[in-house]
Recover the amino acids of this structure.
């Protein structure tokens, strides 16, 4: 094809390395969460987002966008968490069409118990493999990739209708419960 900018050897190596690393890290984290906590990675992320939100609740639409998943997949994941008593849903008081996902105490306890194993898996699969300067470079580079593909007008730290909270990737629990 005329005008196609084919990947050179260096670029192809970066692309293939990215594909392999993301696939293997994702599988490693998913397996650890399933075995140790009985959670899927999306379910764990739902709990993290809710734990970091004011009042432990987030509109389902905002949660779906913040978790980079479809509304139908989020509905399924929240339904599974709801069956286990980790999350409940309630009507949004400011919007008759809105539904809030709310973290229960059992959900907070489950997250608190799952977080150390999850962090250990993330460290083993990614963080501890990299040199400190590589972590900074990866964070900047992947942040730019995410920003470029983010819907217009959206920022990494915001979700519609809510204040920015501590970024979930920094801590699986809100600051008041980190030492628990």
């Amino acid at each position: 094809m005329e005008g196609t900018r084919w990947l050179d050897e260096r670029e192809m190596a970066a692309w293939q390395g990215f594909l392999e690393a993301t696939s293997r890290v994702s599988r490693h984290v998913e397996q650890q969460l399933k075995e140790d906590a009985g959670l899927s990675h999306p379910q764990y992320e739902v709990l993290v987002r809710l734990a970091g939100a004011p009042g432990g609740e987030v509109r389902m639409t905002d949660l779906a966008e913040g978790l980079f998943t479809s509304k139908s997949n989020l509905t399924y994941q929240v339904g599974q968490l709801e069956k286990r008593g980790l999350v409940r849903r309630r009507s949004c008081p400011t919007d008759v069409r809105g539904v809030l996902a709310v973290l229960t105490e059992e959900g907070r306890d489950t997250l608190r118990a799952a977080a150390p194993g999850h962090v250990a898996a993330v460290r083993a699969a990614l963080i501890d493999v990299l040199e400190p300067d590589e972590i900074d470079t990866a964070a900047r580079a992947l942040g730019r990739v995410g920003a470029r593909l983010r819907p217009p007008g959206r920022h990494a730290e915001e979700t519609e209708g809510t204040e920015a909270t501590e970024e979930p990737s920094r801590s699986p629990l809100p600051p008041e419960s980190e030492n628990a």
